[in-house]
Amino acid sequence: GISSIDIMNSVARGQKIPIFSAAGLPHNDIAAQICRQAGLVRQSEKGNVKDDHEDNFAIVFAAMGVNMETARFFKQDFEENGTMESVCLFLNLANDPTIERIITPRLALTTAEFLAYQYEKHVLVILTDMSSYAEALREVSAAREEVPGRRGFP
Q: Going by CATH, does the domain composed of 3-152 fall within 3.40.250.10?
């Protein structure tokens, strides 16, 4: 796993963990690594930890405002490592319309709720590049002539 997450920020069910990154750092690699290594851990009857991720676990991955190279990286990485079978992938490219960038996280969360409530799966949702989402919200609020929030992000 990722040591800093495993030791200081272990993910429990229902928990949200933001991962902040500066420009030029490998945040896409970290998101892909989290997706590759994600799974359920349960206690077995003997007290040993067993990995139970194949039974009822799904991942919803949404990337907003990414370029074609990054989208290809995510798709290729998930296919090569065999995680594509359990991943529902939403890719919003940088040249897609702004409104699609706003809808992408909502579609991802709706899909996660559907998998959780209809199929009783444990779902991990990974949303990457929230700054692109915030910029899309700013563009829409400017087009509607609304007062934007602090620093231009609603």
A: no
Main-chain dihedrals φ then ψ at residue 137, nearest 5 degrees: -60, -40
pTM of the model: 0.82
Phi/psi at 47 (5° precision): 95, -5
Residues 97 and 71: beta-carbon distance below 8 Å: no
Nearest in space to 91 (alpha carbons), one of 124, 66, 112: 66
User: pLDDT tens digit string along 33-82?
Assistant: 888 888 777 666 665 545 455 668 899 999 999 999 999 999 999 999 88
Sheet of strand 122-128, all strands in order from the earlier edge strand to the far edge: 87-93, 57-66, 122-128
- The rounded distance, in Å, linking the Cα atoms of 110 and 153 is 24
* Nearest C-alpha neighbor of 111 from the set 141, 80, 88, 144: 88
Burial (CB count within 10 angstroms: exposed 0-12, middle 13-18, buried 19+), residue 62: buried
How is the chain split into domains, by residue range?
A: 3-152
Contact between 123 and 112 under an 8 Å Cβ cutoff? The reply is yes
